Amino acid sequence: MAQLSARRIGHLHFTAVNDRGASVEIGKGPEQFTPGELMQLAVAGCQALSADSRFEQALGEDYHATFTVSADANREENRFTAFHTALEVEFADMPEEARAALLGRVDRAIERACTVGRTLDHPAPHNLEIRDAAGN
Q: Which pTM was predicted?
Protein backbone atom coordinates (compact mmCIF):
# COMPACT_ATOMS: atom_id res chain seq x y z
CA MET A 1 0.00 0.00 0.00
CA ALA A 2 1.07 3.57 -0.64
CA GLN A 3 2.59 5.51 2.21
CA LEU A 4 0.49 8.56 3.01
CA SER A 5 1.42 11.48 5.23
CA ALA A 6 0.12 14.94 6.02
CA ARG A 7 1.79 18.02 7.44
CA ARG A 8 0.02 20.71 9.41
CA ILE A 9 0.07 24.02 7.53
CA GLY A 10 -2.02 26.10 9.93
CA HIS A 11 -5.30 26.24 11.83
CA LEU A 12 -7.51 23.34 10.60
CA HIS A 13 -5.28 22.92 7.52
CA PHE A 14 -3.08 19.97 6.51
CA THR A 15 -1.42 19.05 3.22
CA ALA A 16 -1.46 15.31 2.52
CA VAL A 17 0.91 13.63 0.07
CA ASN A 18 1.44 10.15 -1.29
CA ASP A 19 4.64 8.49 -2.48
CA ARG A 20 3.69 9.18 -6.13
CA GLY A 21 3.88 12.95 -5.67
CA ALA A 22 0.16 13.77 -5.47
CA SER A 23 -1.12 16.17 -2.83
CA VAL A 24 -4.44 17.32 -1.45
CA GLU A 25 -5.34 20.13 0.92
CA ILE A 26 -7.37 18.95 3.92
CA GLY A 27 -9.22 21.40 6.12
CA LYS A 28 -12.23 23.62 6.40
CA GLY A 29 -11.04 26.61 4.41
CA PRO A 30 -11.17 27.63 0.77
CA GLU A 31 -9.46 25.26 -1.70
CA GLN A 32 -9.46 22.49 0.93
CA PHE A 33 -11.41 19.25 1.18
CA THR A 34 -12.92 18.25 4.50
CA PRO A 35 -12.32 14.64 5.60
CA GLY A 36 -16.03 13.96 4.98
CA GLU A 37 -15.77 15.25 1.42
CA LEU A 38 -12.69 13.10 0.87
CA MET A 39 -14.62 10.09 2.15
CA GLN A 40 -17.43 10.77 -0.32
CA LEU A 41 -14.91 11.18 -3.14
CA ALA A 42 -13.17 7.96 -2.05
CA VAL A 43 -16.43 6.02 -2.35
CA ALA A 44 -17.41 7.48 -5.72
CA GLY A 45 -13.87 7.50 -7.08
CA CYS A 46 -13.41 3.85 -6.16
CA GLN A 47 -16.65 2.94 -7.90
CA ALA A 48 -15.72 4.94 -11.02
CA LEU A 49 -12.18 3.55 -11.23
CA SER A 50 -13.42 0.00 -10.65
CA ALA A 51 -15.87 0.44 -13.54
CA ASP A 52 -13.49 2.28 -15.86
CA SER A 53 -11.94 -0.69 -17.66
CA ARG A 54 -15.34 -2.24 -18.40
CA PHE A 55 -16.65 1.01 -19.87
CA GLU A 56 -13.42 1.57 -21.79
CA GLN A 57 -13.58 -1.93 -23.33
CA ALA A 58 -17.17 -1.37 -24.47
CA LEU A 59 -17.17 2.33 -25.34
CA GLY A 60 -13.58 3.05 -26.34
CA GLU A 61 -10.60 4.68 -24.71
CA ASP A 62 -12.02 8.18 -25.07
CA TYR A 63 -15.46 7.55 -23.57
CA HIS A 64 -16.85 10.39 -21.46
CA ALA A 65 -18.00 10.01 -17.87
CA THR A 66 -18.69 12.29 -14.92
CA PHE A 67 -19.64 11.40 -11.39
CA THR A 68 -21.31 13.30 -8.60
CA VAL A 69 -21.58 12.13 -5.03
CA SER A 70 -23.50 13.14 -1.94
CA ALA A 71 -24.11 11.65 1.46
CA ASP A 72 -26.86 11.39 4.04
CA ALA A 73 -25.78 12.05 7.60
CA ASN A 74 -27.01 11.48 11.11
CA ARG A 75 -25.92 14.76 12.70
CA GLU A 76 -26.74 13.61 16.25
CA GLU A 77 -24.34 10.67 15.87
CA ASN A 78 -21.88 12.68 13.72
CA ARG A 79 -21.66 10.02 10.99
CA PHE A 80 -22.66 9.31 7.42
CA THR A 81 -25.56 6.92 6.92
CA ALA A 82 -25.49 6.53 3.12
CA PHE A 83 -23.53 7.59 0.05
CA HIS A 84 -25.15 8.34 -3.31
CA THR A 85 -23.07 8.25 -6.49
CA ALA A 86 -24.37 9.13 -9.94
CA LEU A 87 -22.10 8.16 -12.82
CA GLU A 88 -23.11 9.74 -16.11
CA VAL A 89 -21.77 7.88 -19.14
CA GLU A 90 -22.26 8.57 -22.84
CA PHE A 91 -23.47 5.26 -24.28
CA ALA A 92 -23.74 6.57 -27.86
CA ASP A 93 -26.01 4.25 -29.87
CA MET A 94 -25.47 1.12 -27.78
CA PRO A 95 -28.47 -1.23 -28.01
CA GLU A 96 -30.43 -1.71 -24.77
CA GLU A 97 -29.48 -5.40 -24.47
CA ALA A 98 -25.75 -4.61 -24.82
CA ARG A 99 -26.10 -1.76 -22.32
CA ALA A 100 -27.76 -4.05 -19.76
CA ALA A 101 -24.99 -6.63 -20.18
CA LEU A 102 -22.33 -3.93 -19.78
CA LEU A 103 -23.97 -2.59 -16.62
CA GLY A 104 -23.99 -6.11 -15.17
CA ARG A 105 -20.24 -6.41 -15.84
CA VAL A 106 -19.71 -2.97 -14.30
CA ASP A 107 -21.64 -3.90 -11.14
CA ARG A 108 -19.60 -7.10 -10.74
CA ALA A 109 -16.33 -5.21 -11.28
CA ILE A 110 -17.28 -2.67 -8.60
CA GLU A 111 -18.32 -5.41 -6.15
CA ARG A 112 -15.02 -7.21 -6.71
CA ALA A 113 -12.56 -4.33 -7.01
CA CYS A 114 -13.82 -1.34 -4.98
CA THR A 115 -11.76 -1.54 -1.78
CA VAL A 116 -13.48 1.49 -0.27
CA GLY A 117 -16.96 0.06 -0.73
CA ARG A 118 -15.89 -3.35 0.54
CA THR A 119 -14.39 -1.69 3.62
CA LEU A 120 -17.62 0.18 4.32
CA ASP A 121 -19.51 -3.12 4.01
CA HIS A 122 -17.18 -4.67 6.60
CA PRO A 123 -15.85 -1.81 8.75
CA ALA A 124 -12.19 -1.78 9.67
CA PRO A 125 -10.92 -0.80 13.12
CA HIS A 126 -9.20 2.57 13.17
CA ASN A 127 -6.82 3.80 15.80
CA LEU A 128 -4.56 6.76 16.48
CA GLU A 129 -1.11 6.57 18.02
CA ILE A 130 0.21 9.92 19.25
CA ARG A 131 4.02 10.12 19.38
CA ASP A 132 6.42 12.80 20.51
CA ALA A 133 8.02 14.18 17.35
CA ALA A 134 11.21 14.87 19.32
CA GLY A 135 11.43 11.19 20.27
CA ASN A 136 10.83 11.75 24.00
A: 0.91
